[in-house]
Amino acid sequence: MPFYNSKGIIPSKRHTVFKKNKKLLFEQHISREGFSGIYSNLYHLSMPTKLSKVGDFKSLKNSKVSYKHKARHLMSYKIKKNDDAIKSRVPLMFNNDIIISVCHINKNMDYFYRSGHFDELFYVQYGSGLISTNFGDLKYSSGDYVIIPKGVIYNIKYTKKTKMLIVESNSSINSPKKYRNKFGQLLESSPYCERDLCTPNLNKPIDKKGDFLVKVRLEGGIQDYTYNHHPFDVVGWDGFYYPWTFNINNFEPIVGSIHQPPSVHQTFEGHNFVICSFVSRLFDFHKDAIPSPYPHSNVDSDEFIFYSEGEFMSRSGIKEESITYHPMGIPHGPQPGKYENSIGKKKTEELAVMIDTFNPLYLTEEALKISEKNYHLSWIKK
């Protein structure tokens, strides 16, 4: 979905001699799907392959635990683990397609990080900071989605204490195909467009020798590598492959005279999952409309919702940073009174992120620790 970008200085022709101050620069090609997908070419002061040491490997494995199949309310605001953007991550759910975590950032990374096997999406619940990458800098603040494709080297420094919802995906994370024309441009009818996306700001290349630690995320853990030059030595790049941000408040809601299905809120898609944004919007305008969601059975998907802020019209007993999980196989919908009480309401003020997966999610031990005991009984009116 990203559009063509060019930053810094690049040669007029690919794969040709390119010099700066009479010094030969080194081209790096980064591509998807072998050489058949989107790609970018970066131009370095040093060979990007100059590895000086392979260090420790830290195993990371999410284990399936035993629990009852039921709807759940996870109180993520009870998680107290704080550290940098990598070390503070707490995985809550996973399957073979994605891992969903939260993190609380109160320390800066003193190393670089590259995900070798996962594309990453961050949703910034609160806080602000700077994500420095080999493609340039991206500022983040509350409400931002940050998309970092696999292979991008980055470092995160916070300016305000930060909480993020994190998705690690085995596949690329893109805009939905239904929003794009045959050339890849976002349609006029899409709820957002290219001008809503923020791309990296490339700084002057860092020409520094030494020992630079890059932690690389693999499927089974994190491998340490040491390079003899600073990884942000890029003088320029161009292409379609780079990290970018999009703020949830720039999503334009699609409304109708009667209640619209959750698919109108779709914002991103990956293999076997979609991500939707529920934003402040006008309610349905048919004279007999029922704005509340109708009870439904998503027989082919698990539903994960992270409640970011505002008033949540269909739920009681949840608050900001609550997570609801409604697994496939069980009907769910508004809680007692919410269906009836929604009639006549004109608008909602809310922000929430929904992830629907088309393969079952598994909860981690950490998720069970913050699971409300009797949420699954909350549809019984007392």
Instruction: Based on Cα principal axes, name the global outline.
Output: globular
Largest sheet: 12 strands, mixed
CATH-level-4 superfamily name of the largest domain: Jelly Rolls
Tally the helices.
2
- Distance between the ends: 49 Å
Elements, N to C (H/E):
EEEEEEEEEEEEEEEEEEEEEEEHEEEH
**Under the CATH scheme, which class of the largest domain?**
Mainly Beta
Please give a structural write-up.
Helices cover 2% and strands 42% of the residues. The protein is mainly beta and 382 residues long. It folds into two domains: 5-62 and 80-247, Sandwich (Jelly Rolls), CATH 2.60.120.10; 251-377, Jelly Rolls. The strands form five sheets. Strands 6, 8, 9, 10, 11, 12, 13, 14, 15, 16, 18 and 26 form a twelve-stranded mixed sheet that branches. It has a six-stranded antiparallel sheet with strand order 7-23-22-25-20-19, with no helix packed on it. The longest helix is centred in the last third of the chain and has 5 residues, at 365-369. The radius of gyration is 22 Å and the shape is globular. 37% of the residues are buried.
What's the topology here?
Layout: E1 5-8, E2 19-20, E3 23-24, E4 26-31, E5 39-44, E6 51-59, E7 72-75, E8 90-94, E9 98-105, E10 112-115, E11 119-133, E12 136-140, E13 144-148, E14 153-169, E15 209-218, E16 221-229, E17 234-239, E18 244-247, E19 266-270, E20 273-278, E21 281-282, E22 302-310, E23 322-326, H1 338-341, E24 347-348, E25 350-357, E26 362-363, H2 365-369
Parallel strand pairs: 10-15
Antiparallel strand pairs: 1-17, 2-3, 4-5, 5-17, 6-16, 7-23, 8-9, 8-26, 9-14, 10-14, 11-12, 11-13, 11-14, 13-18, 15-16, 19-20, 20-25, 21-24, 22-23, 22-25
